[in-house]
Amino acid sequence: VQLQASGGGSGQAGGSLRLSCAASGRSFSTYGMGWFRQAPGKEREFVAAINWNGSKTYYADSVKARFTISRDDARNTVYLQMTSLKPEDTAVYYCYAHIGSVYNWGQGTQVTVSS
Q: Which of 63, 70, 78, 109 is positioned for an S-S bond with 33, CB 3.0–4.6 A?
């Protein structure tokens, strides 16, 4: 599966952005999907994940109650709705798809939040 992330950009603290990750290839609905992010000078960190059928979601404590991950299997797309943005959310966001221990990564999309 190949992944294409989009929707990044600049926003102000307290604002919202929605990231999309479109997948090409077969069997999208069998993949678990998620997002990581990497801020300058920091390691890549987990943000959110959703299981293959959308019945389970997982969030980093730092984004819980502010970010929502969802998927639309008809569009082969996973979304990350980000609200109440903070300057510390500034990072390059990467989406991934996985089955078991096999992970596929998309290119990153930059999110910049100003105070």
A: 78
